[in-house]
Amino acid sequence: MAASPTLSPLEALRQQRHARWLAAFTSSLIEVFSAHAQPGGEPFEVFLFGSRARGDWDGYSDIDLLVIADEQGAADLWADRLLEAGAGSDVLPVSRGCWQAWLASPSPHWRAVRSQAIPLLPWPP
Length: 125
Hints:
alpha+beta, Beta Polymerase, domain 2, four-stranded mixed beta sheet, 4 strands, 50% helix
């Protein structure tokens, strides 16, 4: 049985910082959704993807989010609210049907997004 690799002190610190950032960021999303909740208009799920999800972000990295709702109009509305709240730099609104199609897509782009995406929250929690 191979020994598990140990993290360098710098990598361990980076992972700790990312975990703290992720917890604080998820809390800020919950605040935005709670402030604007409407029955039937809630997002289905929110995913973080891109460099922040992969863990290779730097000071110039943006925050990439997927907002999935039952209908495209609701996804668009939540994406706008997140952008207005400063919760993301690149927020992609997606209907649940479109997301399901993307999950089944052979596209290398969507396969990469699917493999790296971190579910931040289902809504309602």
